[in-house]
């Protein structure tokens, strides 16, 4: 016997720790935490299902106590704690955890409120029909390998012969050592369609497979925002998928109480705890982090989920709902990490990889099943051939058996005399006398012929891969017809995607935003053209302390960039804005955009396409100007994006689209204007988080009122107008100021349209505004008429003869008229009356309506 000293083996601690930890890590990775990519199961789940199969707990048999199943699994296959086994069994029976549950449960198996299941001595279970048909079918046909269990007393399968991609169907999650997996569930019908597409076209790509497998399909329903994250997860194996519960705004009536609006939540994101969600909302309300909620209650029952969030009278339902999405688990992210075991090694898999690994495994299973059936058929046919030989020599064989001394002697003589095998000789000796009748003999011959045809068919299957693929396709289509269910999770088009624009007519629209933040959209044809110097029509129901602040035209498919005074930009599609009538006030913009109540929108820019050859030119109240590439704003987050850095006390006021060869025209309240180019010499391009440079030198008490862009093609092809022509036009205007005739129509644009707050306007030839260097004082753009209330410049725009303009006043009165109805005058003229105004009413904005284009300029 070795001494204690001899039993000590010197070893290096570093190497021992490394080896031991690696063994432990691989044991966790392979034997516990990660699913197999073939059947989508971890060892504990596989052992539970196989044990239930061995117990005969199929869907057509009675339920059995879960404790019986857990004991079977522990005693035969899984030498771990009973809690681990029971928890895994419970999860496979929860219809809110599994898209297609693998176990049918009877009793309390937990709830979406995270209630614990009843003890295993109370609950009962059996296999679902899908499990028997799609995971355990053919397991006795040598389709998969079996290995010894932990003590060598039993055999257990290394994988189940799955007929469907179960890993994608129900998903999986697990934390191993140094790695983790998180695979979302999908729709069975879509997965089978994708598998059939892969069989038909082995070169299909992940993106093409998305035509069949649209995205995750969670058992709790809900919504998935956008397809970009789904595409990323399917093509790279990783992605953060945004999930959102289903909530509707309803008006509820309770006895003895006035009607109130309420948010009704009917579906939750996957793995969201309903009770914890309600508790979180109540906590946020108590901390006053969410305002507008009067009461919250859970009205869920066996018919479905219903969480009622009752709102206060003055609450904006959309604002409250947006806050719930932002601050509670009502909107959550699913971090997809598509990690699974392939040939015993963890691998990140794409959608095609998942389906290809499964398809390869299924081909192997069909091949092994066919080989097993072929062997059994050949063994049976071999016996039948021996019986047919016996029937052909019946009398001689009977005589041989009768005269034999014992069974071994008879068996030996049969083998020697007729060339039979031992198996055939045993079958003849065991043949019953009733098999000697003519009818029984015919049955043996018929069975032999059928087996011959079957053997030929099985050999053909093994020889031709396309036959195997046909079998796989037929089997999965049968499963789809029997078990597929409609999609539960709705995939919504996310930010920046076209969505349903193809169903929306791309018509011209007018956008109005008031000082107090009410916005609405109206068709341009709501306002017919009117003659000059009329009063116009009301365009909005404006209160005394409110006024129209922003006014523009665009097309319904355009992206609208909303720039706030803080220099933050938000984005909405024009068609997402609610349509209002001329007399409606509109919808609070805080319901459409996540902006603080005290923040104001100072500029709105419509963009039909984000091209790399265009810039956004931004001008601040303090006179700083800069240009930034338009593509920098093509993907704007839901909570906005920084567009410009501002000095303390400064505000972003005007934003326009421009090209590098264009020029910019800026006007001031006292009637000055400066004109300079947008090239990189005058305005070099800057990033988003920059301040810009000085635009114009202002006199004391003056301020900027607007900016417009002059396209280079127009600037380079200007037709100069002589001073004599302008003087002649001015004289004509003075004589016809109150006339309906249109002077100056013999000339063509473009023009600088100058409109004053007092209702006067004119067209000035662009050539009169010579190009200067940036940061100068500029030139006089207009003179003002002597009035009791001192007139000021409202705005200036670049217009063409065939344009129309829409002017809006602070009281919401709109007039639409042709540009050529406004006289052409020089810079030093005062203009003609373009709109009659009520006392204390002023023009606040002008929008241009081009004849054939949806591009529009914004009004100040």
From TrEMBL:
Heterotetramer, composed of two GyrA and two GyrB chains. In the heterotetramer, GyrA contains the active site tyrosine that forms a transient covalent intermediate with DNA, while GyrB binds cofactors and catalyzes ATP hydrolysis. PANTHER family: DNA GYRASE SUBUNIT A, CHLOROPLASTIC_MITOCHONDRIAL (PTHR43493:SF5), DNA GYRASE/TOPOISOMERASE SUBUNIT A (PTHR43493). Its EC number is 5.6.2.2. One of its GO terms (cellular component) is cytoplasm. Residues 434-482 form a coiled coil. InterPro entries: GyrA (IPR005743), GyrA/parC_rep (IPR006691), Gyrase/topoIV_suA_C (IPR035516), Topo_IIA-like_dom_sf (IPR013760), Topo_IIA_A/C_ab (IPR013758), Topo_IIA_A_a_sf (IPR013757), Topo_IIA_dom_A (IPR002205), Type_II_DNA_Topoisomerases (IPR050220). Few gyrases are as efficient as E.coli at forming negative supercoils. Not all organisms have 2 type II topoisomerases; in organisms with a single type II topoisomerase this enzyme also has to decatenate newly replicated chromosomes. SUPFAM superfamilies: GyrA/ParC C-terminal domain-like, Type II DNA topoisomerase. GO terms for biological process: DNA topological change; DNA-templated DNA replication. This is DNA gyrase subunit A. It comes from the Bacteria. A type II topoisomerase that negatively supercoils closed circular double-stranded (ds) DNA in an ATP-dependent manner to modulate DNA topology and maintain chromosomes in an underwound state. Negative supercoiling favors strand separation, and DNA replication, transcription, recombination and repair, all of which involve strand separation. Also able to catalyze the interconversion of other topological isomers of dsDNA rings, including catenanes and knotted rings. Type II topoisomerases break and join 2 DNA strands simultaneously in an ATP-dependent manner. It comes from Chlorogloeopsis fritschii PCC 6912.
């Amino acid at each position: 016997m070795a001494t204690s000293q001899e039993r000590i083996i010197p070893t290096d601690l570093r190497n021992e720790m490394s080896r031991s930890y690696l063994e432990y890590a691989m044991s966790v990775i392979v034997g516990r935490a990660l699913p197999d990519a073939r059947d989508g199961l971890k060892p504990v789940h596989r052992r539970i299902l196989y044990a239930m199969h061995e117990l005969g707990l199929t869907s057509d048999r009675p339920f059995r106590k879960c404790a019986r199943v857990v004991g079977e699994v522990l005693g035969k296959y899984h030498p771990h704690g009973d809690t681990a086994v029971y928890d895994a069994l419970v999860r496979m029976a929860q219809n809110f955890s599994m898209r297609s549950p693998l176990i049918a449960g009877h009793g309390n198996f937990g709830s979406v409120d995270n209630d614990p299941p009843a003890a295993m001595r109370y609950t009962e279970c059996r296999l679902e029909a899908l499990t028997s048909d799609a995971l355990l079918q053919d397991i006795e046909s040598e389709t998969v390998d079996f290995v010894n269990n932990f003590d060598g007393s039993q055999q257990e399968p290394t994988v189940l012969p799955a007929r469907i991609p179960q890993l994608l169907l129900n998903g999986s999650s697990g934390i191993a050592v140094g790695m983790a997996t998180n695979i979302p569930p999908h729709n069975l019908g879509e997965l089978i369609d994708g598998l059939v597409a892969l069989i038909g076209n082995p070169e299909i790509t992940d993106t093409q497979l998305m035509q069949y497998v649209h995205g995750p399909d969670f058992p709790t329903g809900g919504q998935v925002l956008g397809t970009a994250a789904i595409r990323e997860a399917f093509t790279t194996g990783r992605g953060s998928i945004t999930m959102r519960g289903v909530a509707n705004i309803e008006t509820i009536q309770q006895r003895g109480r006035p009607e109130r609006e309420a948010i009704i939540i009917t579906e939750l994101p996957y793995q969201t705890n309903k009770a914890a969600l309600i508790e979180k909302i109540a906590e946020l309300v108590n901390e006053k982090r969410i305002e507008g909620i009067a009461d919250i209650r859970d009205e869920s029952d066996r018919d479905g989920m219903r969480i009622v969030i009752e709102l206060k009278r003055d609450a904006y339902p959309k604002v409250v709902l947006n806050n719930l999405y932002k601050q509670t688990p009502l909107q959550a992210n699913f971090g997809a990490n598509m990690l699974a075991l392939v040939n015993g090694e963890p691998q990140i898999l794409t959608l095609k990889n998942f389906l290809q690994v499964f398809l390869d495994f299924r081909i192997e299973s069909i091949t092994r099943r066919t080989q097993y059936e072929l062997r059994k058929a050949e063994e049976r046919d071999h016996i039948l051939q021996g019986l047919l030989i016996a029937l052909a020599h019946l009398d001689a064989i009977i005589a041989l058996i009768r005269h034999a001394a014992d069974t071994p002697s008879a068996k030996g003589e049969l083998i020697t005399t007729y060339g039979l095998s031992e198996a055939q000789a045993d079958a003849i000796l065991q043949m019953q006398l009733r098999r000697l009748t003519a009818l029984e003999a015919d049955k043996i011959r018929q069975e032999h012929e059928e087996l011959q045809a079957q053997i030929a068919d099985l050999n053909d299957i093994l020889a031709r891969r396309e036959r195997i693929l046909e079998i796989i396709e037929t089997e999965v289509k049968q499963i789809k017809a029997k078990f597929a269910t409609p999609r539960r999770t709705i995939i919504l088009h996310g930010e920046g995607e076209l969505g349903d624009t193809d169903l929306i007519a791309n018509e011209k629209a007018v956008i109005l935003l008031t000082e107090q933040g009410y916005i609405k959209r109206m068709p341009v044809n709501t306002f017919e053209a009117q003659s000059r110097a009329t009063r116009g029509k009301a365009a909005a129901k404006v209160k005394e302390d409110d006024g129209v602040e922003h006014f523009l035209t665009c097309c319904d498919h355009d992206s609208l960039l909303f720039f706030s005074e803080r220099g933050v930009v938000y984005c909405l599609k024009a068609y997402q804005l609610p349509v209002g009538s001329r007399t409606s006030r509109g919808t609070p913009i805080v319901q459409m955009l996540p902006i603080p109540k005290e923040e104001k929108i100072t500029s709105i820019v419509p963009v039909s396409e984000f091209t790399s050859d265009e810039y956004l030119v931004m001008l601040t109240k303090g006179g700083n100007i800069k240009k930034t590439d338009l593509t920098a704003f093509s993907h704007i987050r839901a909570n906005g994006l920084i567009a410009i850095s501002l000095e303390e006390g400064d505000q972003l006021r005007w934003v326009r689209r421009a090209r590098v060869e264009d020029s910019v025209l800026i006007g001031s309240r006292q009637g000055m204007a400066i004109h300079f180019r947008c090239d990189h010499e005058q305005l070099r391009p800057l990033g988003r988080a920059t301040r810009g440079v000085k635009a114009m030198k202002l006199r004391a008490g003056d301020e900027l009122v607007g900016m417009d862009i002059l396209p280079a093609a127009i600037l380079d092809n200007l037709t100069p107008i002589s001073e004599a022509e302008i003087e002649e036009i001015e004289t004509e205007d003075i004589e016809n100021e109150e006339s309906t005739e249109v002077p100056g129509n013999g000339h063509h644009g473009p023009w600088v349209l100058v409109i004053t707050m007092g209702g006067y306007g004119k067209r000035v030839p662009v050539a009169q505004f010579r190009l200067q260097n940036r940061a100068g004082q500029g030139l006089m753009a207009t003179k003002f008429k002597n009035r009791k209330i001192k007139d000021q410049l409202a705005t200036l725009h670049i217009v063409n003869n065939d344009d129309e303009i829409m002017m809006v006043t602070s009281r919401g009165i709109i007039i639409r008229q042709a540009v050529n109805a406004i006289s052409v005058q020089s810079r030093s003229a005062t203009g003609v009356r373009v709109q009659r105004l009520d006392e204390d009413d002023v023009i606040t904005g002008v929008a241009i309506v081009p004849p054939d284009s949806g591009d529009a300029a914004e009004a100040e």
